[in-house]
Structures
1.
Amino acid sequence: MMSSRKVAVVGTGYVGLVTGACLAGWGNSVTCIDLNELRIKRLQRGDVPIYEPGLEELVRENTAAGRLHFSTVLAAGIAGADCIFLAVGTPPRASDGHADLSFLFAAATDIANSLAHGSPAVIVIKSTVPVGTGDRVEQMIESLRPGLHVRVVSNPEFLREGSAVADFEGPDRIIIGGNEVNAVSQIRRLYAKAEKSGAAVIVTSRASAEMIKYASNAFLATKIAFINEIADLCELTDADIGDVSLGMGSDRRIGMQFLNPGPGYGGSCFPKDTLALAKSAQDHGCRLGIVNETIASNEARKSRMAAKVVAALGGSVAGKRIAVFGLAFKANTDDVRDSPAIPLIRTLQELGAGISACDPKAVHQARLVLD
Ligand code: NAD
């Protein structure tokens, strides 16, 4: 029989909300905390502000069962918690592309100032963060509250938007990074159901856990950039990229996934994570040539898309009306962050085209960023 834990999740976005709802679904008592009052008010009414298949039902079911709560007050939300997940955003820093850790450090400061003395809570970093961030969070809390002795564990998340609930509930692997055995076991127990269903659990150091997340995303991004470059070459020859992808992907060592050519990878993870990894390598005096080239190749592809449309329309799009199917960065999500559709549409508009765009889930988000 699984024991139920009291869990707090700080940051109630795609990752935080899915984490909170799924952990509640496994029988834990969960409070999701966010600074965004509107978001929390909506969630308290059972109105789920983001689209993910199965998420709304899961949130409603667990809220009704009294296992899932929402709050804007961090101190109340973390009171008595066994584990506190940090799932705030780590977007690229506008000035230099490094991961912006200001939200994470602000949340950690709040936790340090609110945690009861003697609290056994394990702090779990779920946000994607550069190597060494767990150490910095631990040191920060220790210096703000000497003697609190917090235990910080890295537990990066690999869910994909569009299938986030299924991915969280049935992951390929669960990475737990930490050097304090009890803290690691506590987090491992939270995932007992997923482990029982076959998920591999990899226990490692905090630094390795942090690196695994970036290295995984950079590898997948590289796979996409690679097939896009092969697609370019196919266009100049008689080869068919569909057949080439199928032929390559049928080799189990290569695999079908992330081998579909398209307008370049986007979304809230690959672009920022590849950049953050490259920047962090630079800081360590290490050149990640393949990652750098992946970033450049993807950027070039995104900007070439408009030129392809212009060429297909006889050299000019001025005064023409163009239909765009798909605004999100991929199917089954409403997330338009770094979606290749957005710069494509903007460029076509600048060139004088009128756009009619359609997306089954992302129209309301796209309206916020497009004219
Ligand atoms: P998001 O922007 O959807 O959500 C972040 C939330 O954190 C926001 O609602 C924001 O208001 C809240 N927040 C910020 N500072 C806060 C604070 N001090 N206290 C409370 N709430 C605060 O972000 P996301 O897409 O869920 O990503 C979160 C992290 O998970 C990032 O590091 C991301 O790289 C990583 N990640 C994301 C995905 C994904 O598919 N979206 C997958 C794996 C990992």
2.
Amino acid sequence: MGALLRDPDERSRHDGEDRFRSMVEHGPAVSYIDGPDEHASTVYISPQVEGLLGYTPGEWYHEPSLWPRLLHPEDRSRAIAENKRHIATGEPFRMDYRMFHKDGHVVWIHDEATMALDERGLPRLSYGVMMDISERKAGEESAVYRAYHDELTGLPSRAMFEELLELSIARAKRHDRSVAVLCVDIDDFSLVNDSLGHRHSDGLLRQVADRLKDATRETDLVARRGGDQFLMLLSDLDREDMGETDAALVRAEASAQRVKAAMSAPFEAGETELYLSVSVGISLFSQDAEDGASLQRNAEAAMYESKRAEPGSYAISSRGTFDSGAKLQFVTRLRKAVDAQRWTLYYQPVVELDTGRMRGVEALIRWIEPDGTMIPPNDFIPLAEELGLIELIGDWVVRELVYQAQAWRGLGMRLEIGFNLSPRQFWQPDLAQRVIERIVAGGIDPAQIVVEITESSAMIDPDRAQEILWSLRRSGLRIAIDDFGTGYSSLSRLREMPVDVLKIDRSFVAGADGDPQAASIVGAFLDLARGLGMTTLAEGIETSGELGFLRERGCELGQGYLFAKPVPPEEIIAFALGRALMPGSVSTSAAATAG
Ligand code: C2E
Ligand code: MG
Ligand code: MG
């Protein structure tokens, strides 16, 4: 642009200006030429300026000091200083500042100008463009805002929590106070998420956030850590010793209890109401850890510990007595086990109660560590669900049991094989397809496979459960309701579901022969199942008294330590070959189980 001005020829200067004019008067930005003075008095300004700031070019020419007058007070001295430098040095002017529009609103402007020098190298005119960047500025603000706030719940984010935690630790060190970090995690939330869908789970997270805020004092910080995890920070706690325990711990526990109580009323998810609980882990500065990262890590480990021991409660991390490292290690170990597929399937015989013959087996997973330690499913399946690892484990189970069915078939054995689906697996969108593909690819008759799903997972969303069960059934698989009696089934629902086998939970079977109340419950379950055309199965038969009672009541099938514990597959061959499963019975018939 400097070249344009230095052009010595008057005519070509005009040509240049015309070209310049047509170029600048149609672009999105405001172009201008200012005099080299403190006010940046306007020599030329393109008409778009009226849209930007509400003043016509005429008004700009008329009032030489319009520019400084419209500058926002907070930016004025900075902008004027920058302009002075621009004039004095001839270097480009480049800055963002705010101006007032004629109607009073604030406009963010990006302004860039180059200085044209005359022949003697003195500043002659400044050529610049101004553009509206209000939106971008708003965006920048919200980017900062976003980093510190959780969009969904409006709570402070983990980043904000961590900064405030550091500050509060620093304060606690100076004033000999204590700080508590609580890690709060919704129990079985993945299940809610999978069964109700994202829209409802977002709503639930907001409700939980609101209740957490209500349950805490103004000075306590509640943040969302991500997913279904929240963090709470209790600062400036007293360190006063109260004998066995200390005041800070009492405060933290009281908070955990308030949080727990705040969850007790039902939550709304669309038309339905449902109950949620949270597990809480507590870590204290400086009793348990001295830095923010460790406090958070320990609180998380304590939360997992609490979830494993008793969901809906809280656990306190404390140096020495609570080895959070080991607990987190468990998570790491589980991830490794998933990678290395450190699983094996044990099989427990399913016995016909009147003949003692083995009808089939139930596959039960075990985790085998490299040192031979065997970890039972109840110790890791819930955690695997929580960590989103269950699908991988479930896929392994189906693959493995197909191999096993093939191997048994090779020996002339045709057993019904049941396997378990955890709640979250059940809600996988492509469950039926995933399972059936493997079974059919392995050349196994789907009618030989029984899918076990617990009563409580089927009843979370009976409508969808019904659909899923039908899709399994249409593939030819058989369906069992596991742990029956522990959930809250609606009988009309149960009638509409394609259920082949009703497995009565062990807790009702135990001692049913000697306990009239248990006996009448089991009797009612058996009548119900028969009425609905289902096969009855009693779980956990341990005594011959229980067996006698069940046979008398006409229960068809049973499982339990009385017959056999879950065993490796080789031992199933022995049972099939005739080892007696029924105490007192002569033998089971291999022929009867061979297919
Ligand atoms: P479940 O499906 O109800 O399995 C029955 C559980 O009761 C098994 O425990 C079995 O060993 C135990 N049991 C059988 N008979 C008796 C008895 O007479 N007395 C007593 N006290 N217990 C008996 P296990 O193998 O520890 O499995 C526990 C639960 O873990 C299972 O309950 C099932 O819900 C889950 N599970 C097992 N394998 C898998 C799997 O492959 N995938 C998934 N998702 N869950 C599994
Ligand atoms: Mg089962
Ligand atoms: Mg069961």
